[in-house]
Amino acid sequence: MTDSVDTIFARLKRLSVEANLPELEEGTSYGNPALKVGGKSFVAVKNNETIVLSISIDDKERLIEMAPEIYYQTPHYIGWPYMPLRAAMISDAELKERLIGAWRFRAPKRLAASFQG
Length: 117
Fold this sequence. Notes:
Blueprint: H1 5-18, E1 25-29, E2 32-37, E3 40-45, E4 50-54, H2 57-66, E5 82-86, H3 92-106, H4 109-114
Antiparallel strand pairs: 1-2, 2-3, 3-4, 4-5
Helix pairs in contact: 1-3
């Protein structure tokens, strides 16, 4: 059973708040619900099965190798610092860790440096 986009977005918001990520903004990215920092999207819900995270290309390759059941890539994302993942396959603990990383990747440098997460 897949969750709704709203349910997945609520999960992302809850985990981001639990991680104490500062200056969270709700918005959209390409028409999809997204969380932003400094006006930049760091995570979005693509559909009822897929979350898209901002991530460095090096980290993306490593995670896809480590857990291909969660992380994957389509031709659309090759060479771009974004990675789709299967929402139903990732635990809250791992997703929170990935949200912190995505937030750090997209946050303004001064804000990222001050975050003690």
